[in-house]
Amino acid sequence: MITKENAYEVFDKYGIPEHCRDGLYHYLFERIEPGSFLTSVLANDLVGAINNADDINILAIKSYVLFMYWELPARDVPNSQWGSYEAVERWLDSKE
Predict the structure, then answer these.
(1) Which end of the chain has fewer CB atoms surrounding its CB within 10 Å, N or C?
(2) What total number of domains does the chain contain?
(3) pTM, entire model
């Protein structure tokens, strides 16, 4: 599972584009709201992700999906960081 200490190695393992790694890190570990593309990806909103993707991220959507599936808690467990806009909102609002 991803930790603060190994986050960038894990991002590299899955091919997360470099220009989105900081935003993903800040979301996961500092609970800072990411941009519209990452929010759509984390909310499991394919249409939103495609509409908000740049030329690099449009090709990396599978990488994000694999990363979330294998590295983050299941989307249907309490306090999951992904799976729906509600889950993203809960994660940002919680202070654990």
Answers:
(1) C
(2) 1
(3) 0.93
